[in-house]
Structures are given as C-alpha cells and as structure tokens.
Design brief:
CATH topology: Rossmann fold
Radius of gyration: 17 Å
Oligomer: single chain
Order of helices and strands: HEEHHEHEHEEHEEEH
Mean pLDDT: 87
Number of strands: 9
Largest sheet: 7 strands, mixed
Distance between the termini: 54 Å
Helix content: 25-40%
CATH superfamily: Vaccinia Virus protein VP39
Low-confidence stretches: 1-6, 224-231
CATH architecture: 3-Layer(aba) Sandwich
C-alpha cells in the first residue's frame, strides 16, 4: 500500500482558503473562516484525499460554538481563574472566548492537524494563549480541567455514544461541562440544565435554515454516577 502523501503547509492552506471575519454572535472575536462553504469544502477534500483527515469543520463558526463563546464572554465568572478544555474545538472559538474571559489556562483538543493549525492562527489573531492537544481525549481522566466546553458534538450517533459517557464522568468528578447545541439529533435527553438560548445566524450551505435556536446546557453527571459518588 503506498504511503500517504505528505501534508502541504497547513497554515498556508488555511490562509489561502479562508479570510479573517467575525462570527455573527461574537463580533469581538475574529477567526480565519471560509467566506463560502462549498469551494472551501471542495478544496479541503482535494487536499485531504490522500491523508484520511476529516473535512474542514475548523473553517466554520458552528452555532453551538458561537453560543458557548457568547455565554462565556457575557458570564466570565464561569471560567475566570479556571483551567478550561475546549473539546473537539474546531476553529477554537469557545477556547478563545474562555481566554478572553480570564481563564487561567485554556487547552483545545482536536484530532485534525488542520484544525490544530487553525486554532493557533486564531488564538494569535485575538492575542490570547490557547494550548492545543492533537489527540482524542475521550479515554482520559479529568486531567485537572475545571470547565469542559463541548460545542456541536452531538451531531452523529457513534460520536455521541463515545463522548457522552466521558463528559458525564468528568462532571461526576467535579468539572463543569458546558454544551452548546443547536438541536442536533443525538443530544442527551436527560440530566441537562438549560442555561441560556440564542438565535444564531447560520449559512444555508451548511444548515437547513438561516437561524438556529441554540442552547447552552450544563451536562450533569448521570444519576447512576451521582449516586455512586455519594456513597
């Protein structure tokens, strides 16, 4: 089997295929974003065809991430002085918002090297520090995070089945788990505390509507985990 072709310069690809813009719900944050979804998606697929890497989700400010970022900017006490993880961070928008809100340390996790590069570019663009871990963290323990952010992670059944119990375990050992979700099909139905809702402007090339009602939830430990912890 032939070896995969080497990746091109990641930051070069990002700069060539995106432009600096502010997401609709967070005008105080600028990101390298795709101005049009379809051309960037096609460019990404061509670039990634020989590598097996995911599509360029990092080039879009998804509704769940926008809602989380807005919530943190408006409620900095949620993260101020705390250690924060932005899981499956994409563009890194919630991570950047947490840093701006005064978090003591912010880590973004991603499995896509292009996303990791985009997070670095976006953090620098906003003058904040965000460490990036290029790994799937769903088998790890708490690792000292006080707050865990998860934007738009419940869009696919297998992913949701892996992520939900991990997030619940983190909540069970004391982490605050905040989920931004615009009504994806696999959001858990139980043990959720609704914090706030936003109307987020979206792109019809990516979504089936111009505006999505997006909720920030606190994901609570499952009742079984909570009962075990109380023993």
């Amino acid at each position: 089997m032939p070896a995969a072709e080497p990746l091109r310069d990641l930051t070069g690809f990002i700069r060539a295929n995106t432009a600096v813009a502010a997401p609709p719900l967070t005008p105080e944050i600028r990101l390298w974003l795709a101005s049009e979804a379809i051309p960037l998606w096609e460019a990404g697929e061509a670039e990634l065809a020989a590598t097996g890497l995911p599509p360029p989700y990092w080039a879009f400010a998804w509704a769940g991430g926008q809602a989380l970022a807005r919530y943190l900017l408006d409620h900095p006490e949620q993260v101020a002085g705390k250690r924060v993880l932005d899981f499956a961070a994409g563009s890194g928008l919630p991570a950047i918002a947490a840093a701006k809100a005064g978090a003591a340390a912010v880590t973004a996790s991603e499995i896509d090297p292009f996303a990791a590069a985009a997070i670095g570019l976006n953090a620098a663009l906003n003058g904040v520090r965000v460490a990036c871990v290029e790994a799937d963290l769903t088998d790890t323990a708490r690792a000292g995070w006080d707050v865990v952010l998860a934007g738009d992670v419940f869009y696919e059944r297998d992913l949701a089945a892996r992520v939900e119990p991990w997030l619940r375990r983190l909540a069970g050992v004391g982490a605050t788990v905040l989920v931004g979700d615009p009504g994806r099909g696999f959001l858990p139905e139980a043990d959720l505390e609704r914090l706030i809702a936003y109307r987020v402007k979206t792109d019809r090339a990516l979504e089936d509507t111009d505006v999505r009602k997006t909720v920030v939830w606190r994901l609570l430990p499952s009742r079984a985990v909570a009962a075990l912890g109380a023993q």
